[in-house]
Write a structure and sequence with these properties.
Largest sheet: 6 strands, antiparallel
Number of helices: 14
Number of domains: 3
Shape: elongated
Distance between the termini: 150 Å
Strand order of the largest sheet: 8-7-6-11-10-9
CATH topology of the largest domain: Beta-Lactamase
Structural class: alpha+beta
Mean pLDDT: 76
CATH superfamily of the largest domain: GAF domain
CATH class of the largest domain: Alpha Beta
């Protein structure tokens, strides 16, 4: 037999055997990958923590498809990458890169057209936009979309196959992994949503019970603190519309910069808060917006935020602002819906707080009324009786003794007048808005008293409230305000006395202090307005050196 004839069948047999071995290896590899896929399917679908699920999908993709790098881009609003989860890159390299991908170039093409993409070299594709500085080089690429029901949730990206290039089998396996990932993500999202709503519902029930049963405590602060924890926010604030309606004032806050924020006011004009209050609709605010131009500072709205109006439907009284710092995940519609449920309780908390203040005010007034009655019915009557007795004694003693007794009687009269003034002050509601002259002067004195070592003493003589009305009341209030301001700023006084006298068709104001005195050239720059007020009313105004030192201001007008 010819040697060539015997070699022919042998080569054919070896070729067939090699083919069968390669096919067997492919089947073994396919079965191994199938077992891996089943194992991965069980692992992913049994994990209900969304954050862990997303991370494991990326790690498994890198392992299963033998890639050097793997990542997942989660698509958010406006078809931008909301999250970018990656494995394989060294931490020091990642820190050097200016920014993570934003969904442009080749990654953006997958977002715009969610179909698998497999490339031997990334640079060969016209859609590639290159890499930022310090980014490691990458050659082969495989990208597949991850769908949750009919929604494209994100994309799985694999680069630098350790086999040299990704094969068609790799692409099929990646698509199978993406399908499993979609199911796992859906399960985790449903579980997360259920748990999330359960936490909010439980907290809402506890707040409701507390509002209905607990009459003490700052319920609004409890709500603000609770919302910050539930929403995983960095700052939560409650701002109320000012009386004029043009501004909002931060009443309560919790979180980053809360202490500095409370008490600050912001204009409602052309602001997110103003828009929400005008139409009564809650809204999500993207961190890309310029909050400063809308009446907010960085402390008020730091990044992605929820702005929720609250109050009666015909009178929005304020907003609940829930904020995360810049760069964190934005809030979702689910967050907004649950935030609205808490905002509805803020109005109730404000009503309860006002009810608490009203009860405390009534209790205070009742206590003051009891003390005032005791002073009037007992102390003043005894002082009157003592004065009358002393007058009788003065009639039967020497002139010198009678003069001393008369001086003491004058002191008793002054004490009685001061006690009566104290009775009037105690019966006055400090939170009420009164237009009487007595009340206005006492309010002015209350404001200034904290700036002096001793509270100014006020005495009223005659029918002050009857004789002073209209513009005269405003003038007298201005006189007292300016006079006390000069006592505080210039006189360096420790004591001041104010006498308001209505008698003989005139109302007179005298303000005396124990300060440095007016000197040779009295400072009238701040008092010229008071002289003008007196002259406009046909009266007089003057400043003198007080008899015991200090300054005596005298202002008098006819009624």
């Amino acid at each position: 037999m010819d040697q060539r004839d015997s070699a022919g069948p042998k080569l054919e047999f070896e070729s067939a055997l090699t083919h069968f071995v390669e096919r067997a290896e492919e089947m073994v590899n396919s079965q191994a990958r199938m077992r891996d896929l089943i194992r991965i399917n069980n692992e992913l679908t049994s994990n209900l923590d969304l954050t862990n699920v997303l991370r494991r999908i990326v790690e498994i993709g890198k392992e299963l498809l033998n890639a050097r790098y793997a990542a997942m881009g989660v698509i958010g609003d406006e078809r931008r990458l909301e999250q970018f989860i990656h494995v394989g890159m060294e931490p020091e390299v990642y820190e050097q890169i200016d920014h993570l991908p934003e969904g442009k170039g080749l990654l953006g093409a997958l977002i715009d057209d969610p179909q698998p993409v497999r490339l031997e070299t990334i640079a060969s594709d016209a859609r590639s936009s290159g890499f930022p500085a310090f980014h490691p080089p990458m050659e082969s690429f495989l990208g597949v979309p991850i769908r949750v029901r009919e929604e494209v949730y994100g994309n799985l990206y694999l680069t630098d196959s350790l086999n040299g290039a990704f094969s068609s089998d790799d692409e099929e396996l990646a698509e199978a992994l993406a399908a499993t990932a979609g199911i796992a993500i859906e399960n985790a999202r449903l579980f997360d949503d259920s748990s999330y709503r359960a936490r909010w519902s439980s907290a809402l029930a506890q707040i409701t019970s507390r509002l209905l049963t607990d009459d003490e405590g700052d319920h609004l602060q409890v709500i603000v603190d609770e919302v910050r924890g539930l929403a995983d926010a960095d700052l939560v604030s409650v701002a109320l519309v000012s009386e004029g309606g043009g501004e909002i004032v931060v009443d309560h806050a919790s979180g980053v910069g809360a202490e500095e924020l409370v008490g600050r006011s912001f204009s409602l004009a052309d602001s997110f808060a103003g828009d929400a209050l005008s139409d009564g609709e809650p809204r999500l605010v993207d961190e890309q917006k310029r909050f400063e131009s809308h009446g907010f500072t960085d402390e008020a709205l730091l990044g992605n935020s929820m702005v929720i109006p609250f109050g009666p439907s015909d009178n929005r009284v304020g907003i609940l602002a829930v904020t995360r710092t810049s760069g964190r995940l934005p809030f979702s519609g689910r967050d907004l819906d649950l935030g609205v449920s808490f905002a509805s309780h803020i109005r109730l908390a404000l009503d309860r707080a006002e009810s608490q203040r009203a009860r405390r005010r009534v209790a205070l007034l009742e206590d003051r009324g009891r003390i005032a009655r005791d002073l009037h019915d007992h102390v003043i009557q005894r002082l009157f009786a003592t004065g009358l007795s002393m007058q009788g004694t003065a009639a039967i003693v020497s002139d010198e003794a009678a003069g001393q007794i008369a001086a003491q009687i004058d002191e008793l009269d002054a004490a009685i007048a001061q006690i009566r003034q104290s009775i009037f002050a105690m019966r006055r509601d400090p939170e009420s808005t009164s237009v009487s002259l007595r009340a206005r002067i006492l309010e002015i004195v209350d404001r200034v008293s904290g700036q002096m070592a001793n509270k100014p003493r006020v005495t009223f003589s005659g029918p002050v409230d009857l004789m002073a009305s209209g513009t005269l009341t405003d003038d007298i209030a201005a006189v007292v305000t300016e006079a006390l301001a000069n006592v505080v700023r210039h006189a360096h006084a420790t004591k001041a006395e104010i006498a308001v006298i209505a008698a003989s068709g005139q109302v007179s104001i005298e303000v005396t202090d124990n300060g440095v005195g007016p000197g040779d050239s009295p400072r009238l720059s701040g008092l010229d307005n008071l002289r003008a007020r007196a002259e406009n009313q046909g009266g007089t105004f003057a400043i003198h050196q007080a008899s015991g030192g200090g300054t005596r201001l005298a202002w008098s007008v006819p009624t």
